[in-house]
Write a structure and sequence with these properties.
By secondary structure, the chain is α/β, with parallel strands linked by helices. The chain has 7 helices and 12 strands. The protein is 24% helix and 18% strand. It has a 7-stranded mixed beta sheet, with helices on both faces. A 3-stranded antiparallel beta sheet has the order 5-6-7.
Length: 264
């Protein structure tokens, strides 16, 4: 469990290397922040239902792997015979991902898991102008999200499958404002998976699917979130996941995603 500040916040702990192997090969890693302390000891929700939002056709650049990512993780809970996904849930894709729809669906607080796969544009000088890209061409700014004080209340895990969501913006006095992940924890998310840099689309989809597979492989006693992320990262590191003869063993692909908050 890591409590990090200043520039250490951007250190990919899992990718630290002792000359023989990476940290992730020996340890499950979790970062805790002041916003997450209160939820660290809470038992997790064992019956995940997922609310997923995916934007594959954004003007900032296509993310073709997003569709397969979400459909590989979630199946339509409104269709009893639906197959394919690991978890029951609701998926909103592309032009269905509108600001009012997203805020209303999350705000109803029916889901213990929220998964967002899209572009996140980090404004390095004015943090409140950073924004999440929506499927209809609209955006949700950090300022708007900050105003939704209980938006993620009781969410067991918020997965931000996007770029730079764990990155905060520096100030002249050496202090930093909250990252996107920090903001969502203050709004109630007990745990957040977020990223330290701009991530690759296909490897991110592979990592996310592996994370949920490991988390749910034992339905009676789910693996902890920290252990599931470790195993997913190891799967990429050890070339157990490939695509078109390309592997994702380099830390660039598996190390940007960190778990913040409740590790259980």
């Amino acid at each position: 469990m890591w409590s990090l500040d200043r520039s250490l916040r951007y250190l990919p702990i899992a990718a630290l290397h002792d000359g023989k192997k990476y940290m992730v090969e020996d340890y499950k890693n979790e970062v805790f922040t002041p916003a997450s302390v209160a939820s660290l000891g809470e038992d997790p929700n064992r019956n995940w239902r997922g609310l997923a939002f995916g934007v594959s056709n954004a003007s900032e650049g296509a993310l073709p792997a997003v569709v397969d990512e979400l459909k590989g993780i979630f199946r339509d809970e409104d269709k009893p015979t639906a197959t394919g996904g690991l978890l029951p849930g609701k998926i909103y894709l592309d032009d269905q991902v509108k600001k009012d729809v997203m805020l209303k669906a999350i705000g109803m607080q029916r889901y213990s898991l929220v998964h967002i796969a899209s572009h996140f544009d980090l404004n390095s000088t004015e943090e409140m102008r950073s924004y999440l890209v929506l499927g209809d061409g609209d955006k949700i700014s950090a300022a708007e999200l900050r105003g939704k004080s209980t938006l993620f209340y009781n969410v067991d895990l918020l997965t931000l499958s996007a770029c730079n969501t764990a990155v905060a913006v520096g100030k002249d006095n050496g202090k930093e404002v909250d990252s996107f992940a920090d903001v969502t924890q203050k709004q109630g998310a007990k745990a957040v998976i977020a990223s330290l840099w701009s991530v690759a689309d296909p490897s991110t989809a592979a990592l996310m699917q592996k994370f949920y597979q490991f988390r749910l492989q034992n339905s009676q006693e789910p693996m902890s979130k920290a252990a599931a992320l470790q195993q997913a990262q190891l799967a990429l590191l050890h070339k157990q996941v490939t695509a078109r003869d390309k592997d994702y063993a380099q830390p660039y692909y598996w190390a940007p995603f960190i778990l913040i908050g409740n590790w259980r």
